[in-house]
Every structure is written in C-alpha cells, then in structure tokens.
Amino acid sequence: MSGRSEVVHIGCYTAQSGGRGTGVLAARRDPASGALTPLGTVALTASPSFLARHPTLPVLYAVNELPDGEVSAWRVGPDGELTPLGSRPTGGAEPCHLAVVPTGGHLVAANYGGGSVAVFPLDRQGVPGERSDLVVHEGHGPDPDRQERAHAHMVSPDPGSGPLLAVDLGTDSVYRYDLDAATGRLVPRAPRVRTVAGAGPRHLARHPDGRRCFLVGELDATVTGYELTTDGSLHQRSRVDASGRPGHVQPSEVAVRPDGRFLYVANRGVGTIAVFDLRGQQPELTAEVDTDGEWPRHFALIGEHLYVADERADMVRVFRVDPDSGVPAVVGEPVPVPSPTCVLPGAAVVIV
C-alpha cells in the first residue's frame, strides 16, 4: 500500500531550560485526517525552542535557547531523521527565533537574553559558517520586569526585496535592516518603528498580499495591524485586543491563513486560539477556541489543519480549520509531546 504523508519536526525545552523534552522530535502527518504519529527524538540537542527549514535544501535549523546561545543545523533524511551539520555560537543569550532569508544564503537569529540579532552565512550545502554580524539593540521599556533592556524576539525576512524586520519586546520596537549579501552584515534603516509603550511586541505575521502585517503585544495582549510599504515602513492601521476572554492573556504566535482571509493568535494564560476576520477595515474577532491547555506557545497552519504546541500541557493539539468560517475544531486526542515549543511543517514523502 502506498500513499503520501509528511514528516513534521517539533522543538521543545529540555532540562537545561527547565523543560522535559530531549531534543528535536519527528512525527508523521496524515494530510487527510491531520493525525500525527510521533517517530521519536531525532536529534539530542539542548532546548531547540524554535526551528526553521532551508528554502531549497533538506536542512533543518534550531536555536539552542541557552545562556550561551547557539544555532544548530542538520541534514534531513527521507523519514525525518537528522544528521548533524554543525553548531555556531549566536553571540548572545537565549536565542528564541531564527529564519533563513529567501535566497538561502544566510541564517538570522534573535537573541532574547542578549537583545541582539546574529547573522550566519550558509554554504551551498546549507551549513552555517562563522557569524558575519551581531547587531545589539539598546534601550528599555516601561515594564521593569520584562523590559529592563532589549529583548529581540523575532526575525522576519521579507519574502521579496524589502528589509528584514526584527521584533524587540524589551524596547517596544520593530527594527528594519537590509542584509548585505556580500558581507553578511545588517545595515539599519532608520527610524525604527515604535509600538505603544509597554506593548512588548513578540511576533508578527505578514499578510500574503505583501502590503500588511500584524504584530502581537505579549505584554498588553493586543494585535496591531500595519500597512507595510515597499521601503519597509510600517504605518499603523488598527489595534484590537488579542482575546475576548477575561483573565491574564499573554499572546504568543500569530499567523495569517494562506488565502489571507483569517488571522490566528495563540493566547497563553486563557489557553485559546483567537480567530480574526481580515476582510473588513480592521481585524474582527469572530471566534475563540479552547485548546484544552493553558500555554499554547506556538502553532502551525498546515493544509486544512492547525497544530498547537502547548508547552506546559506536554501536548500538541490537532484542529481542522473550517474553510469558510476559519474556525478550528478539535480532531482526535492530544499528541503527547514533552514541553513542545514549535511545530515545523515538512516536505511530503511517499510511503510504499
């Protein structure tokens, strides 16, 4: 019997960061049912809290979110197995996000603890070389506990020719950089975009139209919509609450559905996925679905399904997304995964 499935990879926190995972986990995904079948740990590595893939090569990257941060790389085999390609220090503490630029020539990482952005050249096999740049952010925000200094939380390369956006929770800012491909250095575009004071921006999602993006505030539980111009400028167009639920709300991941009709936000504390309709003048909250956990740290939209990694509930929850309403509905039982922090879609494979 033959068919098509997909191997996804799941990042986690390990004991070095107070977690219960052991490294990068692989799971086989059934595109029809959405079911995940865990395949076990395929890379023993410390706190691979965020994962990314090379755009053209079978290479997977992870941040190692440690006091002395690193990025690690592996070649991906046909069944999701990982062969080490090497690790590099990020030059800062607790890297929490990374991305490969669309050309595939560089890897960029955000050091949360170090408040900095690191750049690594990639060779033709996707192996990271020595760090080519490290840009350190300066400043602080009004929250003395979370914004005592800069805390870079996300790097978002432009899928076209625009600048890279670096989201910094500690300074309430989105920084814009041009990457010099020849030198691997970041050239700042001034001025940086400042959010509402105390917003604590965490992650942003680009709309497929290339003209909009949406930024979640981890500290003030908001979603801010921006017009994104060709020169990388961000002009605020909307600002709404990330959740309609009472209680402590701490948004984490945000994503726009590929057809551009709906925006999804994971809300820690209340344990929900909020659904916003994007077809009006501003995002409209149309549904908020319980995840049956408290701490949905990350999610991935893959085909008709949504996969939610709940860090504290030790599970990945599977939902089917209604194509018309955009509302997710639970499918099956939770998939046990220790301290999951990231779900990374994979390439389709043929099973014979």
Q: What structural keywords apply?
A:
352 residues, mainly beta, Methylamine Dehydrogenase, Chain H, Neuraminidase, five-stranded antiparallel beta sheet, disordered C terminus
Structure description:
This protein has 352 residues and is mostly beta strands. It folds into 2 domains: 3-189 and 289-351, Methylamine Dehydrogenase, Chain H (7 Propeller), CATH 2.130.10.10; 195-288, TolB, C-terminal domain (Neuraminidase), CATH 2.120.10.30. 0% of the residues lie in helices and 54% in strands. Strands 1, 2, 3, 29 and 30 form a 5-stranded antiparallel β-sheet that branches. A hairpin with a 4-residue loop joins strand 13 (164-168) and strand 14. The protein is globular.
Largest sheet: 5 strands, antiparallel
Strand composition percent:
over 45%
Q: What is the overall pLDDT average?
A: 96
Number of helices: 0
What's the layout of helices and strands?
Elements: E1 3-12, E2 23-29, E3 36-44, E4 50-53, E5 59-64, E6 70-76, E7 82-89, E8 95-100, E9 106-111, E10 116-121, E11 133-136, E12 152-156, E13 164-168, E14 173-180, E15 185-194, E16 201-206, E17 212-217, E18 222-228, E19 234-241, E20 250-256, E21 262-268, E22 272-277, E23 284-290, E24 296-302, E25 305-310, E26 315-321, E27 328-330, E28 335-336, E29 340-344, E30 348-351
Antiparallel strand pairs: 1-2, 1-29, 1-30, 2-3, 4-5, 5-6, 6-7, 8-9, 9-10, 10-11, 12-13, 13-14, 14-15, 16-17, 17-18, 18-19, 20-21, 21-22, 22-23, 24-25, 25-26, 26-27, 26-28
